[in-house]
From TrEMBL:
The keyword DNA damage does not apply. The gene is atpE. This is ATP synthase subunit c. One of its GO terms (molecular function) is proton-transporting ATP synthase activity, rotational mechanism. It is a multi-pass membrane protein. Residues 14-76 form the V-ATPase proteolipid subunit C-like domain. The keyword Transport applies. One of its GO terms (cellular component) is proton-transporting two-sector ATPase complex, proton-transporting domain. Keywords: ATP synthesis, Cell membrane, CF(0), Hydrogen ion transport, Ion transport, Lipid-binding, Membrane, Transmembrane, Transmembrane helix, Transport. It holds the Pfam family ATP-synt_C.
Length: 89
């Protein structure tokens, strides 16, 4: 029984690392692409910078929110693992 608990904890740790790692990479790539497109748009039409800047910050917040939701789910599995309760029965 202790082997199964250790195995679940090990796989959970791997899963948490993958969730946080891939989420961070995705958020960084998303913000990088969005920032480059903003700079390109601002260089082409400088009069639209105020409107584009507001939309850029909105999208940056949404991209970060998606990453933080992934972190919250990963922390849920790290600290309150529902899979371990199934082994207790």
């Amino acid at each position: 029984m202790e082997q199964f608990i250790a195995l679940v904890q090990a796989y959970t740790a791997l899963g948490v690392g993958i969730i946080i790692g891939l989420g961070a990479i995705g958020a960084c790539i998303g913000i990088g692409i969005m920032g480059s497109k903003f700079l390109e748009s601002a260089a082409r039409q400088p009069e639209l910078v105020p409107m584009l800047q507001g939309r850029m910050f909105l999208l940056a917040g949404l991209i970060d929110a998606a990453f933080l939701i992934g972190v919250a789910i990963a922390m849920f599995f790290a600290f309150a693992n529902p899979l371990l309760s199934k082994l207790a029965h």
